[in-house]
Each structure stands twice: as structure tokens, then as C-alpha cells.
Backbone:
């Protein structure tokens, strides 16, 4: 039977407010390896904000849905929003981007989710508020589902997804959100065992299965065996393919937990990094759905993320199909997948 959609994004949507803070009003404090860092403000003070930007219709699921639509996939979103003006705006934005919203549920008596994003030095620190939205998985006719961040207490949705994927043959891309990771590995295992592509950043990966890092990344001279160990530990939880993104140090992927592909990033401007992970996941899955190889999918993810970080917010830089093909061609000598 022909499916209605190439991919359906499942997860929360939100409104992001970006607060840009100057180096005069904050500072960064890091450990000796410059990895574990905190942003510091004066206690009980008023902190000036040099620029404020509000963006509705975002969040991991919305970013993936819009990005997938731009990459010429038939796309829908299953999300539960509130009934407020922000929720109406989110629905309008999704529809304008070509995302089917028939599965979008507007719940009475609650508001949209909200995130405050502190932008400092090109990196972002995000304060996240999730409204208590109620999810109950509808019937979905699609080739792929992309499951990502939802608020606390959505274990029932996880069980429904695991059962649906097991009985329907639908393929699953899974990007765990912060509440997923707080639940721990054992609670996620039934879903991980049904996952075709697991996508996390390094911090999330280490939080899920424990750190294998000797204090650096494989792209910058750390023991590659540490990265392989992390990939293998994730692979052993059940996914078919595991992808780890590592910010400016590139990304890694493996099918068997032993042979590891690495892709670096192009030399491009970075304004702020919100949405880079969503953009990477979107590009990677779109390439996979279109029949590209694993290393080619990594390049698509890298190009999409590298475009997004040149803008404030997670949506503006998401590439169209024609644009991503141009990016791949432009940076083909700079971004070359290799086995490590």
C-alpha cells in the first residue's frame, strides 16, 4: 500500500526567544580541557540584552518537518500544541512551509511550549519550558517516523511508537530529547531496539551510555578507540545505524559498531548554533530516504547544519534540495568522508 508521507515528525513544537549577551556582561568558565564550560552572570543583577529575536513554529519536530519539506519530501507532523495565539502561528508557519498539519492537535486550556535561548560567543544555552500536552499516537501512513523531544511523562507515547513500528514496518529515526535522556537507557531500550537511525550529539551519547572520551574528539586527536567504543555501546542498545555529531569537530557514524565513518565541517561563518543538530538529522535522513549512502547522508547533514549556524534560529538556514546539492558541490574538496 502506498503511504501518504515520506516522513512524519513526532514531537513538541515551541516558541524560541533569543537573548544575545555581550562579553562585557557575561563570561565563560571552562575546565582544563576546555570542554566542561559554564556561562556566568553577576548574581542578583540586571543583565543587558543587546539583541532579542522571537521565532515561532520551531522545536525539534517542527525543525525536522520544515527541513524535510524543503528537501522535497512529503512531510507531516504529529504534535500537540496549545490553543493560544502562538499555537495558531505555529500551525500557519508549518502549512506555509508545505508541512501537512492534519495530525496537529490544538489542545484547549494550555499554551505553547517556550524556550529562552541565551546566545553568547556563538554558542547557545537554552532554558526550556514544556506545557503538559497529552499525546495519543494516531494512525500514521508513512515510510519513516522521526521521533524527537517531548515533555516529561510521555512514556505512553514511546510505548505506542515502539509497538507501531514493530507491527507496521515503518522505519524510525530517533533523536532523544532531554526528558528521554533523563529517563535513562533501560526505559528507552524498547524503542532503541526498533530504531533504524539513532542520532545524538556527543554529550547526549555519553550521558546515555557513559563516557568513553579521553578528553577530546576523534577529529582533534583523541583516541579514536574512545569514539568507536561510544558508537559500539550505542549500537549494542539496538539501533541499525548510530550517528554522533560533535559540533565543530564533525560527525561519526557506524552500522556495525566497528567500522566508523568521519566527516568534518566546512570553513563557514558561525552566528549561533541553535538547530544545528536538527538540521544535521534532517539532512541525514532525507539523503537516506532518497537512497544515498551512509557517508553521503553524513555530508548532507553537515551541509544543512553548516547553513543553519549562519543564522539566528533553527529554521532560516534550512536548505532546499537544490541548495543542498550546491553546497555539496561547493565544499566537496573540503568535506570528504573517510573511514577512521
Residues:
Amino acid at each position: 500500500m502506498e503511504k501518504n508521507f515520506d516522513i512524519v515528525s513526532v514531537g513538541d513544537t515551541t516558541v524560541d526567544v533569543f537573548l544575545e549577551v555581550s562579553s562585557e556582561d557575561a563570561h565563560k568558565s571552562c575546565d582544563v580541557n576546555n570542554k566542561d564550560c559554564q556561562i556566568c552572570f553577576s548574581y542578583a543583577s540586571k543583565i543587558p540584552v543587546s539583541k532579542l529575536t522571537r521565532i515561532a513554529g520551531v522545536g525539534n519536530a517542527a525543525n525536522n518537518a520544515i527541513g524535510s519539506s524543503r528537501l522535497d519530501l512529503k512531510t507531516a507532523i504529529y504534535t500537540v500544541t496549545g490553543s493560544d495565539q502562538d499555537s495558531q502561528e505555529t500551525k500557519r508557519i508549518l502549512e506555509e512551509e508545505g508541512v501537512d498539519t492534519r495530525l496537529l492537535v490544538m489542545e484547549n486550556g494550555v499554551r505553547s511550549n517556550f524556550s529562552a535561548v541565551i546566545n553568547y560567543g556563538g554558542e547557545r544555552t537554552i532554558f526550556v519550558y514544556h506545557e503538559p500536552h497529552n499525546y495519543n499516537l494516531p494512525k500514521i501512513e508513512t515510510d519513516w517516523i522521526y521521533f524527537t523531544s517531548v515533555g516529561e511523562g510521555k512514556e505512553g507515547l514511546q510505548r505506542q511508537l515502539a509497538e507501531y513500528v514493530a507491527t507496521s514496518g515503518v522505519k524510525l529515526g530517533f533523536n532523544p530529547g532531554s526528558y528521554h535522556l533523563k529517563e535513562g537507557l533501560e526505559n528507552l531500550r524498547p524503542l532503541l531496539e526498533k530504531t533504524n537511525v539513532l542520532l545524538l550529539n556527543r554529550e547526549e551519547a555519553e550521558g546515555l551510555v557513559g563516557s568513553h572520551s579521553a578528553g577530546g574528539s576523534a577529529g582533534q586527536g583523541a583516541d579514536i578507540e574512545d569514539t568507536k567504543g561510544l558508537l559500539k555501546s550505542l549500537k549494542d542498545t539496538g539501533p541499525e545505524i548510530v550517528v554522533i555529531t560533535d559540533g565543530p569537530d564533525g560527525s561519526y557514524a557506524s552500522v556495525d559498531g566497528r567500522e566508523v565513518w568521519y566527516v568534518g565541517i566546512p570553513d563557514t561563518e558561525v552566528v549561533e548554533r541553535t538547530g544545528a543538530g536538527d538540521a544535521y538529522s534532517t539532512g541525514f535522513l532525507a539523503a537516506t530516504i532518497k537512497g544515498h549512502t551512509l557517508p553521503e547522508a553524513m555530508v548532507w547533514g553537515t551541509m544543512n547544519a553548516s547553513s543553519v549556524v549562519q543564522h539566528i534560529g533553527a529554521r532560516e538556514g534550512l536548505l532546499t534540495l537544490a541548495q543542498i546539492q550546491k553546497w555539496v558541490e561547493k565544499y566537496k574538496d573540503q568535506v570528504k568522508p573517510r573511514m577512521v
User: Anything to note?
Assistant: The chain has a mean pLDDT of 91. The domain at 5-339 is CATH 3.40.1190.20 (UDP-N-acetylmuramoyl-L-alanine:D-glutamate ligase). DSSP finds ten helices and 17 strands in the chain. The chain has one domain: 5-339.
